[in-house]
Amino acid sequence: MPDRNSPALEFRDVAKTFTLHLRGGVQLPVMAGADLAVYPGECVVLGGPSGAGKSSLLKMAYGNYRCDRGQILVRDGAALIDVASAPPRQVLSLRRRTISYVSQFLRVIPRVGAREVVASAGREGGMAADVALARAEELLARLNLPERLWDLPPATFSGGEQQRVNIARGLIAERPILLLDEPTASLDAQNRAVVVELIRARQAAGAALLGIFHDTDEREAVATRVVDVTAFAQKRAA
Ligand SMILES: Nc1ncnc2c1ncn2[C@@H]1O[C@H](COP(=O)(O)OP(=O)(O)OP(=O)(O)O)[C@@H](O)[C@H]1O
């Protein structure tokens, strides 16, 4: 069981400004002085208006965006890794072992079927091939993806079908930190309820979750705490 008394993920004094090189170097400050700790067993939901920087925080934690200042500390077993300064090799290793990220959209791989898209994420996380395959099928069935689609590449799937493959891919390896960027945005009520159950199960198992949920009911169903990122932007203006 993870140590619940120390954060699994912690942002310390993080600042981010986008520079638009194709627009004459226009600067877009998004946040400064962002401090946030997420503990094992928590589901912290990011709140605040559109454009406040919620997705940017998740992308910085996953190492997709660099931050300009501060630290993003990830507990990786006994080690503490600063994603903000870690070399790419170390960030990739964190993605294999420690952090999962369910983005809003599935990045489809041409010619690879849905079941394999999910199972391969399990294998990358260290599962044996047969276990990964069985777990992939279990998740796809739970998420009501029709079996006739399992061997087809998700490129032609509906938005909601792609999103469910994406969720299965993000959840299969059961890593200690889970980042969720509106995972239920394109789902119907029945599938939203399944995703809420899966998220709560990860939380009960001691994972640290950080997510964005615009739907109030879902937010209430999963959040142990809501953090308004507008406060980070206000620090920026101060
Ligand atoms: N890659 C990028 N290049 C330039 N600006 C960006 C980039 N990504 C985000 N931004 C800007 O940063 C600000 C914060 O965006 P972000 O997507 O983090 O907000 P958000 O709170 O998640 O919004 P929403 O709720 O609408 O998804 C916005 O003003 C956005 O235009």
From TrEMBL:
Pfam families noted in UniProt: ABC_tran (PF00005)
UniProt keyword ATP-binding, yes or no: yes
One GO CC annotation: plasma membrane
One MF term in the entry's GO annotations: ATP hydrolysis activity
Keywords from the UniProt entry: ATP-binding, Nucleotide-binding
TM helices/strands, residue ranges: none
Residue span(s) of domain ABC transporter: 9-237
Source organism superkingdom: Bacteria
Stored InterPro entries: AAA+_ATPase, ABC_transporter-like_ATP-bd, ABC_transporter-like_CS, ABC_transpr_LolD-like, CP_lyase_PhnL, P-loop_NTPase
Family: Belongs to the ABC transporter superfamily.
Name of the protein in question: Phosphonate ABC transporter ATPase
Organism: Methylobacterium variabile
